[in-house]
Design goal:
Radius of gyration: 18 Å
Strand order of the largest sheet: 1-2-3-4-5
Helix content: 25-40%
Number of domains: 1
Number of helices: 2
Largest sheet: 5 strands, antiparallel
Length: about 100
């Protein structure tokens, strides 16, 4: 009984210290955050391109932005944090744009 209790405790501790994984639709291999442009720079770029930005956050090594596209659609979009290049745009799980690799 003690072994199974110890194993269960060890499993819980392992889960608690595991790094969090991306929750979104895209991930980026963007390197050290010291080389990233700021979320403010991304917001300025998006606004200049006609977006209405509600929120920007880091997810899976990408910047994930929520807002309204220049076409008037409420979307989530993923950007490379180093180049600020748009990588993916989706609306309710439907991919509207995806950069070709």
């Amino acid at each position: 009984m003690k072994k199974s209790a110890f194993a269960a405790l060890a499993a819980l501790v392992t889960l608690a210290v595991e790094p969090s994984f991306a929750t979104g639709l895209h991930t980026c291999e963007s390197g050290d955050q010291a080389g990233w442009k700021t979320m403010g720079e991304l917001e300025e770029k998006m606004t200049a391109e006609g977006w209405q930005v509600r929120r920007i956050k880091e997810d899976g090594g990408c910047y994930e932005a929520y807002g309204t596209s220049p076409e008037g659609e409420r979307v989530e979009a993923y950007f490379d944090p180093v180049t600020l290049e748009m990588l993916l745009v989706a609306r309710r799980g439907e991919i509207l744009y995806q950069k070709q690799e």
